[in-house]
Every structure is written in structure tokens, then in C-alpha cells.
Amino acid sequence: MTISGNQLINGQWVEGTAGSYNAVNPATGETLEPAMSKASSAQVEEAVAAAEAAAATLRKSSLEQRAQFLNTCADEILALGDELVQRAMAETGLPEARIIGERGRTMGQLRMFADYVVKGDYLDARIDTAMPDREPLPRPDLRYVKQSIGPVAVFGASNFPLAFSVAGGDTASAFAAGCPVLVKGHSSHSGTSELMAQALARAVEKCGLPSGTFSLLMGAGREVGSALVQAPEIKAVGFTGSLAGGMALVKLSNERPEPIPVFAEMGSVNPVVLLPEALKERADKIAEGFAFSLNMGVGQFCTNPGLVLAIDGPELNQFIEVAGAKIADQPAGVMLNETIHQAYQEGVSNYCGQTETLAQGGESDGTGFKARAALLSCSAQEFIANPKIHEEIFGPVSLIVRCSDAEELVAAVSALKGQLTGTVHCADGELASHSALADVLAQRVGRLLINGFPTGVEVCHAMVHGGPFPAATDVRFTSVGSTAIDRFVRPICLQNYPQELLPDALKNENPLGILRTVNGEKTREGI
Length: 527
Ligand code: NAP
Prior knowledge:
The chain has helices at about 40-60, 65-80, 80-90, 95-120, 170-175, 190-205, 225-230, 245-255, 275-295, 315-330, 340-350, 380-385, 405-415, 435-440; strands spanning about 5-10, 10-15, 20, 35, 125-130, 140-150, 150-155, 180-185, 215, 235-240, 260-265, 270-275, 305-310, 335, 355-360, 370, 375-380, 395-405, 420-425, 445-450, 490-495, 515-520, 520-525.
């Protein structure tokens, strides 16, 4: 397998006609070969037209066909072998174990959707049978089912080159829903993106699906992403990245003649609240776990614990001493790319002017894009009065907010914007005496954790990876876990529709054997 630097459009690998760029090894700053071509707007249009042509076939594909396709995608990713691992390491600076783990997560995610989709639960089939004799008015036969929304544009994330990129959660859930996918690959890992796209293209071919099922469009700059979101055939967008990027896409969508949903997962500081009894009991242990979570992946996780809130006192000082020592021992770590590194440096230096620096990690040796971890602090009053220090700094930095008492702790948590996660460390029974705090935090997060750390997002059925704005643009959905599929389906109601033309999910005899709601009752029985 070789990396060509080409685009995948309608099943063909073609050179982008809008120029070229090179990926960079962030550990060394060296340019990586080959040069990657950039797709032009005309090429985006071509790919989108092919996706539109494929949409009806995918919408009507059986659940088994989709499961087979998802499993074949996973097989083909594994078949890429070590070339994928080596290229992803070179483009991201992430270690081998992380990339191999992420590959497993990516394949596991595809297989989870394969298992999930065949059960048919996501279709949420509902039937209200006709009541011709009802007085004063008869009721018609009404049948409800979820169907694919149409072509989906997916933006690969910089910080998960596999699990949130070309064949990541957005793509897997859109395929599971029966949607064609067009990926805007992230420019900082374009070779990795191409290899993953080669695997998906082989899966499309092996499963006999239309060539417009999947396309990869590359390009550094805003042109490719903007053209995709503006294309009339695109019906939804999946995005993980910066608040500025996500909101720019929302704006583009709102300016379309037909606005579409943009499911953007953006900034989050993931507050961690340390309750007094927990600190008394195990300040050292919590501090060790916190420092580990903060430094994992050089802090480049959307669930990184960027904020700690606690009542001031000797136990909090003990926590700071242990966490600070761990952070001071941390050598500078390679960040994903120059832009992210620069944003981190600027963010920390900006915060340093407004907060106290408690600890700093080892300095960079000047090669590549290396970040120095940091632990900062401020009072609750300073925090509440200054929203500028509530923003995410993407990287290994966390701000400790010292509160004078439990009331001020609730006030500081109340000042927070929407978050992906919120965490509380508490002793047995302690949370019950802080129910106001738990309530306030729960209203601001997508996932509330007790006595854990937010990094590490399980791919499962009960996961919520989303949250109130600005963590995500639509609080009703998750981008991780089986219900991520709900973003890419829409309900349709068929009224008095001929039985023989109904989709299988709604036919009287229930040929799929799925769980349906018939006249308000859950059942697998036919009618
Ligand atoms: P980004 O700048 O938001 O870019 C993500 C993707 O969106 C890229 O493909 C980019 O295209 C595209 N894009 C961004 N703005 C656009 C616009 N106005 N129009 C069209 N396309 C646009 O995110 P990033 O490169 O991953 O990292 C930058 C910052 O994002 C980080 O420093 C961090 O603050 C944040 N981030 C947050 C998370 C999180 O999960 N919370 C994850 C990753 C990054 P191009 O490649 O063409 O620029």
C-alpha cells in the first residue's frame, strides 16, 4: 500500500486540483512525504453528486447489508497492518501503544454499530392501526419509522487520527444509519486519512455498494470544509474540533437556503469537584489520578480535566502538593501540530497573567512542538468575575479554583458553561449532603462521574459524549456510543400506505422480528 496524496472521489483516486501541502512530523518538525493534493470546489461537487446518487440505495439497504459493510470496514482497517500505525505515529507524535489501542477502538466501534443496527431498535418503529369506526372522527392507519437523513459530511478530528477521523464514530454511525459519507480529512494527519480511506474504499467494493458511498476530500485551509457544508445535497454534518471551527460551520449551515443540522462537539474544561471528606480521606490518591488524567495524550483530549474546584484548606494544599510534584516531573510532551502547540502556549501565557502558577512541567528542548504541563490557581471570586479564564486551553493545563465554603463552591459551579463531563470526588454518603451542587453540575454536563476521571470515553450503549452548549451544538445527542446513530436519521410517518410497499420494519407481519410500539404497547408480535 502506498500513500498517493490523492482524493477519493466516487470510487476513484484522483489528484486534487487546488494545490498541495505536506504533513509535518510534530516530534521533529520535519516535512513528511508525499505531498498531499488539495481538492477543488469542483471536485467537492463531484463527490457530493456521487453521494447523492448513492443515497437511495443505501437508504433501502437491509440492516444485514449495513452490518456486513461495517464489519468489512473493520477487517480492512486491520489489514492495513503496521503501515497505518507507523504513519499515524509520524503524523501525530502519539506513541505506538496509543495508536494500536485507538485502532482497536475504531474497529470495535464499527463492529458495535454492526451488532446494534441489525437489532433494528434505532428504527423506533411505531404503528397506530386504523380506527375507521371511531367517533367523532375515524383514525387513519399511521406508521412511523426512522430513515437515513441523506449524505453526511464528516470532519476528521486532529486529536483522534483513527477513532474520530475518516472511519471514526461519526462515519460509523452515519454508515449504520444508511447514509453516504464524505470526509474532510484533517490536514495534520493526511497520510493516515488516506490509508483509512483506502480500507473503506475496499470495503465499499467488496460489499457491492455504490461508489458514492464514501469519499475522502483533503485540503488545508477552509475551502474544502466550507464547500462541503454549503453543498445542497449534504443533509447533516459531524464535527469535532474547536469552538471557532464548529461555530463557523453552524453559520455556514444557517446561511444555506436549506439549513441542516451541524453536530459539532467543541470546547469543554471538564470540571472536577473535590468534596472535603474525599480530600481528607485520600487527597494524595486523587491527586495522582488527576495528574495522570491531565497528562494523558499530552492533555489533548476533549475530556481533559482542565478545571478543579474545591474548598480551600490544608487538604486542598496537600492535593496541590502531590499533583504539583507529578506535573513538575512531567517532561514536555509532543503536541499534535504547530497550530495546536501555538494555541496552547498562547492560552497558558494568557492565563498566567490572570492566575497564580502552582507548578510547571519540564521545558521543551526546542525540537518539534512540545508542551510544558502547568497547574494554575485562582480564587472562586476571581473565577466567577472573569469568564475569560473559563475557556478550554487544549493541552496539559488545569486551573484550581479555591472556594471559601460549600456555598461558594456551588456559586463557582453555577458560573460554568456547558461541559462534556463533570466529576465529583466524594466520600461514602457525602454527595447526599451536597445535593444542590450535584444538581447544578448535572444541569451543565453530558456525563456526570463520581470518583473517577473524565478521560477515557467508553464506546457503549449508555454513553453520552455531548452536552449543553458550547460542549456541543445540540444537547439532545451524543457523538460516541450506539445512540450516535440518532443524529443521522429522521422520522417519517406513512399514513394509509399500501401494505406491500411499506418498509419491512412497518409491515403487519413484522418480518424483521424487531421490537415495535403497536397502539402504544411494545411488542415483537405481528399484526
Ligand atoms: P479546528 O481548527 O476546529 O479544525 C477542525 C477541522 O475543521 C479541520 O478539518 C478544519 O479544516 C475545519 N475547519 C475549521 N474551521 C473551519 C472553517 N471556518 N470553515 C471550514 N472548515 C473549518 O480544530 P483542530 O485543528 O483540531 O484544533 C485546533 C483547536 O481545536 C485546538 O487548539 C483545540 O482548542 C480545539 N480542539 C478541541 C477538541 C475537542 O474535542 N474539544 C478537539 C480537537 C481540537 P482545515 O484543516 O482546512 O483547517
